[in-house]
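Example 3.2
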Amino acid sequence: MAYDEGLAERIREVLGRSPVDEKKMFGGIAFLSRGHMFVGITSDALMVRVGPDAYESALRQPHARVMDFTGRPLRGYVFVDAPGFESDEDLATWIKAGRDFVKSLPAK
């Protein structure tokens, strides 16, 4: 499955010189901090790891939905459809939410 390379470039621009790794996964690309995926792209949807405490709140945001690959929701992760990250500010907000969560995890 291909992913939106333009969106990947936008994510890279938001991240700037931040130390992150990129890895192909979920049929797309994921951005990792300290070994943990915090945001990624599959097809044209943004994947964001918000964590279990922020999960319900994230789902209430416009254009966010349950992340479901296998028929079971992946709690703590959401998909965000394109209108939800159309502006650079909205994209940066989602990226920050993912990075903030993985900062709370021990490095791998």
